[in-house]
Amino acid sequence: MLSRFANSAGELGLSFKPRRRNYRRPDMHDHLGPTGPKRLLALDGGGVRSAMSIAILEKIEGTLQRRHGNHDSFKLSDYFDLIGGTSTGAILAAALATNAVRASELRTLYEELTRDVFRRGGQFDEKRLGQALERIFGSKTLGGEMATGLAVVARRVDTDSTLVFHNNPEGPNYDDAPEKAALGYARYPVANVIRASTAYPGEFAPAQVKLARLPHLEEGLFVDAGFTPFNNPAFQLFLLATLNNRGFGWTKGEEQLLVTSVGTGSLCNELSPASNRRSSRAKQAQRGLNFMIDGAEHTGELLMQLLSEPAVPQETIQEFGDLRDARLTPEPQCTYQRYQAKLTAKTLSDEFGLGLSTRQLNRVRNMMDRDGFQIAYEIGQAVADTLVREDHFPAAFNLEPLTAARAIKPADKAQAKEPEAEAEEAPAETVKDMTTSRLAKLAESPALRRSPLPTGLPRR
User: Fold this and answer.
1) Residue limits of the PNPLA domain (predicted)?
2) Which residues are known catalytic residues?
């Protein structure tokens, strides 16, 4: 059986050399403690267009996996110390941080969710969203076991405030506040917190999250945080991690803090006077909302670039131009890079070699059209191939390597005599060579048998 598998792998150009995990997998104290350097991942909201983020995350994960010995158990939750998101970006962030899924597993998870929640005609199904979140995250709470730090941006309407839920015991509001009869974040169900961040105004009723013990203070009302200045949550997460009164206490600096930001496509809402005159009041109101969201994104991006020196700066506000040599502080406060694309036919063609029809472009620009999932995913692949570079993740942020002494311990040698038991217990934690039984399991993996993704968008 193994010989047949080896032949098939060879025909596909695959190599299955025994690999060792060459890094120490951080625990939660490593991830959330103040000792650096630290790595932060911020994920935009964008409805169905979060498929674009998933493709970019797959590229990032592959790049970092090769950096760290190409071990098959590598996950983004190993590398990033805090993964945060807004709206649908919060769903992806929680799946990575709470369930410790690989980026390659996100595609199936999120595609199934969009099929359930986003109905044909651009309608939402609120009940199905709640069921999907319960199915994915179960009864887990922010104070429960997780793989790394998690932050979720939410907009609370009954107090007119923007909150960042998190799982850091040293952070604000984590513990109960008996004097206020308030529950701490540690008790909040992950599914409820995400539901609070994804309550799209006009489609979902405000999400009710239990916040206190007293009957008259039991619930807070939340709407989709995509309608705040923090749909791109990078700046908000930067503040959470570095402000003195936030409890994280992470050190700022170019070699101390890495911030990676992943977008879901910018609409670039250009409007001619003639088109505006022909538009209905409802259409004008929708455009006004889009202008507000894009403006907030540009402001957040402007601030992050002024605090850093991104390798590939983006033009956020035309009047300011290229911000390559502009900075608010004498020294960069972090290493920062954002991956984003303007969803216009010209940009997608000129910068990423994609030829989209008008119908395809309109479909992907509508974040509620579930049939735009595959288009958004393929745009994300093109963006990742063009923009994601290994030098965006400097060596200063590499995970701590395993020493030779730690790589082969007496316990490991004892386990090597029983390969079947080792494979069943914790293959992700081992650093010895891949056993025959483990290779056999890989041969049966559906992931290896899966056919390549269809390429529906023509490349120029």
Assistant:
1) 41-238
2) 87, 224
